[in-house]
Amino acid sequence: MGKSAMARASLVLLLVPFVALLWVASYNKTDPAIEGIPFFYWYLLLWLPLSTAITAIVYFANRK
């Protein structure tokens, strides 16, 4: 697989946060709570750095 094909394949990584946040039924609950913070909130906050990291990986893979 050449560099350009691998770079295009890395675009699939952008679907991970999209699907994870679009499927609300998977995280629409309160347990397990971390230090009183319901699962719903800390799950969404967890995806902020994860989405940033995934976007950076895809950006650097596709940079020319």
Describe this structure in words.
The chain has 64 residues and is an all-alpha fold. 62% of the residues lie in helices and 0% in strands. The protein has helices at 3-10, 15-22, 39-62. It is elongated, with a radius of gyration of 15 Å.
For the sheet with most strands, the description reads: none
Q: Helical region count?
A: 3
Query: SSE order in H/E notation?
Result: HHH
Number of E-type strands: 0
Rg over alpha carbons: 15 Å
Oligomeric category = single chain
Summary keywords:
64 residues; elongated
Short description:
The chain is an all-alpha fold and 64 residues long. 62% of the residues lie in helices and 0% in strands.
Chart the SSEs and their pairings.
Layout lengths: L2 H8 L4 H8 L16 H24 L2
Helix pairs in contact: 1-3
